[in-house]
Automatic annotation (TrEMBL):
Superkingdom, taxonomy of origin: Eukaryota
Annotated protein name in UniProt: Uncharacterized protein
Lineage, top ranks: Eukaryota, Viridiplantae, Streptophyta, Embryophyta, Tracheophyta
Gene3D superfamilies, per the entry: Nucleic acid-binding proteins
InterPro entries from the UniProt entry: NA-bd_OB-fold (IPR012340)
């Protein structure tokens, strides 16, 4: 959801993935949601026609693409059940912390570099979520990456509540976390990761990437066993 300050809905943003594994952002204005909402189903395959192509906002990009698709009143969706060329169901932009040292990352941030996705294990967390939850919430989690580098990820407002409820409803001990559209920041020479309005959290087998990454995590550890939810 694309929200203005004050939680006013402006539209819905999404990613489109084609047969070449090219990921491009797309958006539909709030005035056209009634027309296109029935077709906005995650994982559905469509042939699109009658859309506009425009440049992305360069101040904050959610993908590598400099262009984006904008649905108009004339945009047509033709659902495909058996594509001629297989199209993947997921795509991530994982970035290793070792590939982005402080100097390089600072340069990218100063040039309004786009967000990234991360995958790792939560080894510690501190949350202000209460029952019932307040309007203002915060969660800070330590994420251990596959190269043994640990970084801090922060979530604010309604996102910590969603994550807390997600964990409570799972009924199992998740080990792998995939977080999308994370905004990296350098504070005092250290790397911090902030969740954005587009951040989505997935655990374990909810993604193919998460399912195939359990091999590098220690078998004796689990998210519930290593996470403390401190009010």
């Amino acid at each position: 959801m694309n929200l203005r300050w004050g939680s006013e809905l402006m539209g819905v943003d999404m990613f489109l993935l084609d047969s070449q594994s090219t990921m491009m952002p797309a958006t539909v204005n709030v005035n056209r949601l009634a027309i296109h909402m029935p077709n906005l189903k995650v994982g559905s395959l469509y042939s699109l026609a009658g859309f506009d192509v425009t440049r992305c906002n360069q101040n904050y990009r959610l993908s590598d693409s400099s262009m984006m698709v904008r649905f108009s009143d004339s945009t047509c969706f033709d659902e495909i059940t058996e594509p001629a060329i297989p199209i993947g169901m997921e795509s991530f932009r994982f970035t290793s912390c070792l590939v982005l040292p402080t100097q390089t990352l600072s340069f990218q941030l100063s040039n309004n570099y786009h967000s990234t996705d991360i995958i790792g294990e939560i080894t510690a967390a501190k949350s202000t979520v209460t029952d019932p939850p307040h309007d203002k919430n915060r969660l800070m989690a330590t994420i251990k990456m596959d190269n043994d580098v640990s970084v801090t990820m922060s979530m604010f407002d309604s996102q910590p509540v969603k994550l807390h409820n997600q964990l409570e409803s799972m009924g199992c001990d998740p080990r792998v976390l995939v977080a999308t559209s994370i905004n990296p920041k350098i504070v005092g020479g250290h790397l911090f990761l902030n969740a954005t309005s587009g951040t989505r959290i997935y655990f374990d087998k909810e993604t193919i990437a998460g399912e195939t990454s359990t091999g590098w995590l220690p078998k004796t550890l689990g998210l519930r066993a290593t996470t403390r939810w401190n009010p």
